[in-house]
């Protein structure tokens, strides 16, 4: 800071010796008054005022410890400008008070200060050096300001990124709390023992095996359905054939009834007998009953998708059973059932025993 020293041309002389003592006393009193008032000067309390000065518009940025927690570059810039303005005013006040103080001391002093051209030149050189240093400091300060302006964009970008990351962290924290709450609810809803990875894998293997068994069963069922459809198709053809045969037989019966039978109940009895025979065949799974000769009867049954043929041989002109042959059933399954019933001459018992053994296998 440059301290200008006023150059006073003292060409006049003082008053007479009688008045010198009066001026000396007056000067001493003034010096004492200045010393007493030194504590009240603004220059003394300027530093404390600067440290405790509060800037308008940034009250919300005061930290917990009372210090200014400036973070926004715009607020920092406004704070710097306010401090520069305050320091300029303080500098002006200092220069003013210093000049007044020196001026008063020069007036009231008995010995006039000796001001020579050499002293003025020395002051000029010193002021020039100070101005040069001041210009350098100002250039550095301007360079620093340019750097701050260039970096302010990056700072703002980093600030926005930090703000976005803060928001993301807050969102993730809320999601973590929600997940913990959901986990707590699941644990309360499903107490111990819980399903572990090992038990889950075992249960999955069991379900896979069960599904494979069900797939195999489904394939077998589909094969059975296909075979049943084929038999239905064959049966439908046989039914159509039998219908045609029946139509021919009924036609022949009507012709014979008209020619040779005088009793009208024959046709009804014939229909009843045909229906009863068909129902009986369906109930006992009888496919056909064919008489090969006068003493031989061949019965064909369907048991578990296979045909069982029973051939009965009788003694001619009698109802005594002489022999019985069974086809479609293994001999070890039948055993001695056939011989026992042949000896007893029990035809119905023989048929039902063979069919029961066949259905059991």
UniProtKB/TrEMBL annotation:
Keyword Acyltransferase: no
A Pfam match: Sos7
Domain of life: Eukaryota
Domain Kinetochore protein Sos7 coiled-coil, residue spans: 86-159
Assigned keywords, A-Z: Coiled coil
Stretches assigned to coiled coil: 197-231
GO cellular component terms listed in the entry, alphabetical order: kinetochore
InterPro entries referenced in this protein's UniProt entry, alphabetically: Sos7, Sos7_CC
Gene Ontology BP annotations: attachment of mitotic spindle microtubules to kinetochore; protein localization to kinetochore
Keyword Coiled coil: yes
UniProt-recorded name of the protein: Kinetochore protein Sos7 coiled-coil domain-containing protein
Species name: Suillus luteus UH-Slu-Lm8-n1
């Amino acid at each position: 800071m440059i301290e200008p020293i006023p150059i006073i041309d003292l060409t006049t002389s003082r008053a007479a010796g009688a008045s010198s003592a009066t001026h000396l006393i007056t000067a001493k009193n003034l010096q004492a008054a200045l010393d007493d008032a030194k504590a009240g000067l603004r220059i003394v309390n300027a530093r404390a005022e600067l440290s405790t000065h509060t800037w308008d518009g940034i009250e919300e940025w005061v930290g917990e410890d009372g210090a200014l927690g400036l973070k926004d570059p715009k607020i920092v810039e406004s704070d710097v400008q306010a401090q520069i303005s305050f320091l300029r005013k303080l500098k002006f006040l200092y220069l003013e008070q210093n000049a007044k103080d020196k001026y008063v001391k020069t007036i009231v002093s008995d010995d006039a200060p000796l001001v020579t051209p050499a002293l003025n030149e020395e002051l000029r050189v010193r002021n020039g050096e100070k101005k040069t240093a001041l210009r350098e400091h100002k250039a550095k300060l301007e360079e620093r300001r340019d750097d701050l302006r260039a970096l302010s964009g990056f700072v703002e970008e980093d600030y926005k990124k930090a703000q976005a990351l803060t928001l993301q962290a807050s969102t993730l924290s809320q999601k973590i709390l929600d997940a913990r709450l959901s986990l707590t609810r699941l644990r309360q809803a499903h107490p111990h023992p819980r399903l572990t990875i090992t038990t889950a894998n075992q249960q999955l293997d069991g379900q896979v095996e069960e599904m494979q068994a069900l797939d195999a069963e489904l394939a077998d069922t589909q094969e059975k359905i296909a075979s049943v459809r084929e038999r239905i198709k064959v049966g439908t053809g046989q039914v159509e054939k039998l219908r045609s045969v029946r139509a021919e037989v009924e036609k022949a019966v009507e012709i014979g009834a008209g020619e040779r039978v005088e009793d009208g109940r024959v046709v009804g009895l014939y229909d009843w007998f045909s229906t009863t025979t068909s129902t009986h065949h369906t109930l006992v799974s009888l496919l056909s009953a064919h008489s090969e000769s006068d003493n031989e009867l061949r019965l064909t049954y369907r048991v578990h998708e296979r045909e069982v043929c029973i051939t009965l041989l009788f003694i001619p002109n009698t109802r005594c059973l002489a022999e019985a042959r069974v086809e479609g059933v293994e001999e070890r399954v039948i055993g001695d059932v056939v011989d026992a019933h042949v000896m007893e001459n029990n035809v119905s018992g023989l048929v039902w025993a063979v069919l029961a053994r066949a259905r059991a296998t």
